[in-house]
Amino acid sequence: MEVAETKCSSGYGKPPWIFKGSALYQLHLVKSETARAFIPKEFRLVEAFGYTLGGFFLASYEDSPAGVFDELVVIAGTVWNPPTSCAWAARVLVNSGDACDHGRKEVGLPSQVAKFSKKITAIPRQRKSKFSGFLDKIGLGTASFSSKSCMDVLVTETNGRSTTDICNINLTAVGMKFDKWKGPAIKMSLPSFSGRTEYNPSLLKYSCNIECRVRAVRAAKVSRPSLTSKQDAEESLSEHERQNLTISVMLSKPILALEFSCLKMQVEAPVVVSQHPTIRFATTVTD
Q1: CA 162 to chain CA mean position, Å
Q2: 15 has a pLDDT exceeding 80
Q3: Which of 56, 58, 89, 203 is the most buried if burial means most Cβ atoms within 10 Å?
Q4: 55: left (phi over 0), alpha (psi -120 to 50) or beta
Q5: Running DSSP on this structure, what letter comes out for residue 16?
Q6: Residue closest to 43 by CA, chosen among 245, 207, 283
Q7: Is the pLDDT of residue 177 over 60?
Q8: What's CA 77's distance to the chain center, in Å?
């Protein structure tokens, strides 16, 4: 596989681009037929028994080249890149116009502007012993309380006059002492392919180098909101189909959820990937 340098003319400044904040990285089992709708045919899926590894990356950045913003990266699946593998994004939703433009033009991502509506609910939880019922009746109850907070994030894609509720993500945090432990500090690299879009037709490869504290957490619950979409009559059916398939990825079965805190993510400049005779593709690339 041959690699050529890409041009960078982004308002973000020169790469690498640094993003700081926190994130939830949740892995799902995604049906292969759903993932293939987004992934170029020349790639082979990493799959078993009709499923590939996808999911989503929900981040809140406190500091970035585009300032403060939220991001939801919906990962369609994983493709082979011998001797390893790379992720492929089905859709990237951000509440920043600058971040959307940069993702489209410089990184080759299927970025769209979206609204992130957040609602936090504090739920008191009562913890009782087996004798507490009787003690409460005689006024000697000693039940203790711990807090439990829930955040609902409604992600609504906007495109001109069109708005579509993509999903609602329910995040739960239990207020217990060990919640203060943020997990070990790690360094990792998440390689991805991108491109083949209206704004960047080239096939690209880029890497996100991550430093953070990580711990396993309860998987977020993803639901599809009631149909409240307002769409232009001129919007193409294929776009509706892509939105529905994106929602299908989000609703697939979660298998692991990781919380990234104290996150520092360094995104390297994408490079153009060209076909090489030694790489076996399923089909020939055509423009």
Answers
A1: 22
A2: yes
A3: 56
A4: left
A5: S
A6: 283
A7: no
A8: 12
Task: Name the helix (H) or strand (E) containing 279.
Answer: none
Burial class for 185, CB neighbours closer than 10 Å (0-12, 13-18, 19+)? exposed
Rounded CA gap, 112 and 135, in Å?
A: 57
**Token pair of 102 as six digits:** 């940069």
Nearest residue to 265 via CA among 61, 20, 62, 87: 20
Residue 88 tokens read as 């492929």
The secondary structure element, H or E, covering residue 118 is strand 111-127
User: What confidence category does residue 83 fall into, taking pLDDT thresholds of 50, 70 and 90?
Assistant: confident
Assigned token pair, 104: 């489209």
CA 105 to chain centre: 19
pLDDT confidence tier of residue 6, bands split at 50, 70 and 90: very low
pLDDT of residue 122: 80
Which string of DSSP letters, residue by residue, matches 241-262? HHHHHHHHHHTSEEEEEEEEEE
Q: How confident is the model over 87-100, as a mean pLDDT?
A: 97
Q: What's the predicted TM-score (pTM) here? A: 0.82
In this structure, what are the phi and psi dihedrals at residue 285, rounded to the nearest 5 degrees? -70, 130
Tell which wins on pLDDT, 280 or 85: 85
Residue pair 218/270 in contact by the 8 Å Cβ criterion: no
Residue type, 173: A
